[in-house]
């Protein structure tokens, strides 16, 4: 992380007093015991208590905090619920941690337009809870949905089981209110599908708190499908399970969700939640179909046929909602299940072309032997998004570093086979130093120019996403090689 600025550390009392003047009452935490609660996000391997925690309750307070920090050159790390798995909300010793959890109101629900307008601290699941009585729901469903905030979902472009059919956060957010580091309040997008101008909303979704602070989100809500049924399909080989996934998609079927678990994950999950998973298979697919009853029944028949032709050894179709929920229970509890069998685990998040799955899994097995650490695998198989969990013990000297090196090799492998470094957990600090594996220096400089357009002093969440932060003035320079001005035909101002 960037070296803390001694000048800022020395001004701590002044900074805390300024924050108290903007956010009165209990909204400013500066006692070491209180700060400890915020020292890490879901990537608990890295910890750093912040300079001070500020918990505003209004957009106006957010804007004043940011404007003050900008004027006084103090860094700011936005934080939702702190469930990020990539260290996106990891605090800075010389930075304000700006928690959005008190902005937690649902502002408007419009069933006719099928939208909900919510503050950023509202949890993902709370949106569905607010609209379910009327038969609606919010589709993106990260496994952390009971805790993670919609502001954090926007910042990470979060995904979930149902994103295969219904899209990621970016496909379900229509507009945001964004406060810039200067304290200006912008509105990007709106209440409909189209809005005028450049797609700045698309830029902000997935920007990991580096461009501005989201203070309001307008999301699409969808009517609950008439029926949802799930299939639980066991395979004797992971390769044939991967082939089945590829053939289902190739047949033009887009299930509501299609998840895969390997043998180790099946055993860990079954021991934890007793979901009734078969224990004699190498790979398990959970495939959910939703829509009108007849369509679900028809598609279940088609998928069963594809599964059989790929040598499925067991197939169960849910007969009730309770049974469907039990199929999902193990998958949804895969992370805590890993936590039961290992003191620590490190969850990766690479994405690969679906057809490379068997090859990647085989090579991951080889890496597991080389590094001497076990790995268990759950995937959003339909999207090719892998979540290998490397099991380690942080109390054993050197094991964290070995797990990190193993994880980095897995992500390099994902890029090598034509995939990407992250599917849904973001870059944060976790994958920051691997960005050059995926992007050229020119790509990275161009991405940083976008950052500079929003935050020229690099005060918002520095140390995340970019392996090196160049001063913005440096990036703005025109490079003249051998006296030749690039594009001489263009007028210069
Ligand atoms: C058990 C478990 C399961 C998970 N499963 C999934 C999953 O299935 N799919 C998935 O996508 N993720 C998953 N995650 C990761 C995590 O829940 C998501 O990344 C989530 O979107 C983070 O939301 P949060 O509110 O906790 O954000 P935080 O962790 O607080 O912050 C995440 C990032 O967003 C920024 N940020 C937060 N709020 C704002 C805001 N209002 N404005 C600007 N920037 C902001 C922060 O600076 C940080 O960079 C899982 C995590 C856990 C612990």
Your description of this structure?
This protein is an alpha+beta fold. A 7-stranded antiparallel sheet has the order 15-12-14-13-17-18-16, sandwiched between helices. The longest helix is centred in the last third of the chain and has 18 residues, at 399-416. It has 19 helices and 18 strands. Helix 10 runs antiparallel to helix 15 (357-371). The model has no long low-confidence stretch (mean pLDDT 93). The protein folds into 4 domains: 6-99, 2-Layer Sandwich (Uridine Diphospho-n-acetylenolpyruvylglucosamine Reductase, domain 2), CATH 3.30.43; 106-223, Uridine Diphospho-n-acetylenolpyruvylglucosamine Reductase, domain 3 (2-Layer Sandwich), CATH 3.30.465.10; 227-335, Alpha-Beta Plaits; 342-430, Alpha-Beta Plaits. Flavin-adenine dinucleotide is lined by residues 41-42, 77-85, 88-89, 100, 120, 142-144, 148-149, 151-153, 155-156, 158-160, 208-209, 213-214, 335, 424-425, 461. This is Glycolate oxidase.
